[in-house]
Write the structure tokens for this entry.
Amino acid sequence: MTLIVVATGGGGDGKKVTAGTSTSSSAAPTTTTTSTSTTTTAPPETTTTVPPEATTTAAPATTAAPMPVVTGQGAVLREPATSETRVLAPGAGCDQLGDNGWTVTCGMVGAKGGVLAWLLETRDTAAGSTARRALVLRRASGQQWTVALRVTDDSASQFTDIKVRTEDVSGDGASEIAFGFSRTGASSVLAVDLVEGPGTVVVHRDLPKGVARVSSGQLDTWRRADSTHDVHEVIQFRSGAWHVVASAVVPASDVPPSQL
């Protein structure tokens, strides 16, 4: 902006009038405004992950291994070729059912369907050996007894011993008769026949270097597996049949004495 100043003196005082030009620069004050900007960062979006619904996978159905069935196939005791009936006098012992000339060991049991008698007979042979017989008889009527099963070793060539135990092996409240036949020969096989009424072999086992024991509800057998181990099997009557319900290899030193 330009300002013109005029100085005027009094008329006659001889003063000069000076005219001048004065330049004034006026700058508008500059105002600086500092603006503080606060930036608020939005929180991150929260994503909620919904876990998938739990999937229940059904365990595969397990089928128990079938229990091997045991029968009387191969039994030592057999039905006689012809029917045979013996008479026991009133008051006489079961030994009177034996054969003449033989030493008799015997017993009677309440079996399924009636009463059974078992007999073991021995006699010395001319060669100095022992002949052996085993019989099972069932009571028919009155004092009559029918021979149901028998085996004879009159030449002493089949067995070195025969043993008998009676027990309710089936667990049905009636007794069974267990026979153990120790066969001759280097293999030392123990043949086991389990007889139930009215005179049937329901279990037969051939046990190399074998051991057998009977108790209420089961028959335990051991047979040689190798020089230091045996196979132990537990046989029980279940679901209308005889089964091997357990089997294990055990140290031979753990095998108990045989009852048969």
Notes: Confidence is low (pLDDT under 50) at residues 1-44. The radius of gyration is 57 Å.
